[in-house]
């Protein structure tokens, strides 16, 4: 039933409502999109510096704060050069 | 429930979902649920230069609560049918409310 079940135990990238991007392994979820992620890393994008990666560890994120969950293609992700990637930080969600 | 049923008819179509953080994502609608959460496949962020955050993401789940717009391709939508269905749903909701009024029954 749950649309997210196939993503469990896969590497996902989560966009949060405050604009943060967290990458990690999806371990669990419920019907309100509360999720548990393991080995999380935050990726901080900026326009004039390399992408900063911050280790976060194990996270439980409340569904209300989640905008999007993307399934990461590990091959494409390994090919990404985070040091040369530039981009605006994502804007926070405005309801 | 009408829009849930409507979006189910759009499964397999190309759609563009605009989020409330101004991110717009183009992709094929894979599935939808009762909260109007969407699953998209073969996605592409509309302004990839500006938002390279999702370059390694091909499939994604969008939470219904952050969707601002869904852009559909006009030929896939029968607007007359949709309008009619909306009218009928409004009517049946009204009838249900009339059937069980909020006033308490008189005490015998």
UniProtKB/TrEMBL annotation, chain A:
Keyword Heme: no
Domain Sm intervals: 1-75
BP GO terms, sorted: mRNA splicing, via spliceosome
Pfam families: LSM
Entry's Gene Ontology cellular component terms: precatalytic spliceosome; U4/U6 x U5 tri-snRNP complex; U6 snRNP
Signal sequence segment: none
Subcellular compartments: Nucleus
A single GO molecular function term of this UniProt record: mRNA binding
Entry keywords, A to Z: mRNA processing, mRNA splicing, Nucleus, Ribonucleoprotein, RNA-binding, Spliceosome
Similarity remark: Belongs to the snRNP Sm proteins family.
Purpose: Plays role in pre-mRNA splicing as component of the U4/U6-U5 tri-snRNP complex that is involved in spliceosome assembly, and as component of the precatalytic spliceosome (spliceosome B complex). The heptameric LSM2-8 complex binds specifically to the 3'-terminal U-tract of U6 snRNA.
Assembly and oligomerization: LSm subunits form a heteromer with a doughnut shape.
Protein name: LSM2-LSM8 complex subunit LSM8
Species per Swiss-Prot/TrEMBL record: Coemansia spiralis
Lineage: Eukaryota, Fungi, Fungi incertae sedis, Zoopagomycota, Kickxellomycotina
From TrEMBL, chain B:
Biased composition (Polar residues): 91-100
Cellular location(s): Nucleus
Pfam families listed in its UniProt record: LSM
Keyword terms, alphabetized: mRNA processing, mRNA splicing, Nucleus, Ribonucleoprotein, RNA-binding, Spliceosome
Gene3D superfamilies: 2.30.30.100
GO biological process, one term: mRNA splicing, via spliceosome
GO CC term, one of those recorded: P-body
Residue ranges of domain Sm in the record: 2-76
Function comment: Component of LSm protein complexes, which are involved in RNA processing and may function in a chaperone-like manner.
Family designation: Belongs to the snRNP Sm proteins family.
Protein name: LSM complex subunit LSm2
């Amino acid at each position: 039933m749950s649309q997210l079940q196939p993503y469990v135990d896969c590497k996902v990238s989560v966009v949060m409502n405050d604009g943060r991007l967290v990458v990690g392994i999806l371990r669990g979820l419920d019907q309100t999109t509360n999720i548990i992620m393991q080995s999380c890393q935050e990726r901080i994008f900026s326009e004039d510096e390399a992408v900063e990666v911050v280790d976060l560890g194990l996270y439980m994120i409340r569904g209300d704060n989640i905008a999007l969950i993307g399934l990461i293609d590990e091959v494409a992700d390994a090919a990404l050069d985070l040091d040369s990637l530039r981009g605006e930080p994502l804007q926070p969600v405005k309801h | 429930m009408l829009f849930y049923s409507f979006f189910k008819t759009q499964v397999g179509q190309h759609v563009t979902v605009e989020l409330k953080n101004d991110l717009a994502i183009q992709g094929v609608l894979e599935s939808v649920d009762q909260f109007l959460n969407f699953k998209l496949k073969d996605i592409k962020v509309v302004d990839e230069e500006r938002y390279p955050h999702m370059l390694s993401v091909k499939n994604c789940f969008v939470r219904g609560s952050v969707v601002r717009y869904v852009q559909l391709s006009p030929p896939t939508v029968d607007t007359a049918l949709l309008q009619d269905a909306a009218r009928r749903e409004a009517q049946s909701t009204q009838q249900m409310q009339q059937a069980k009024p909020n006033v308490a029954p008189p005490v015998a």
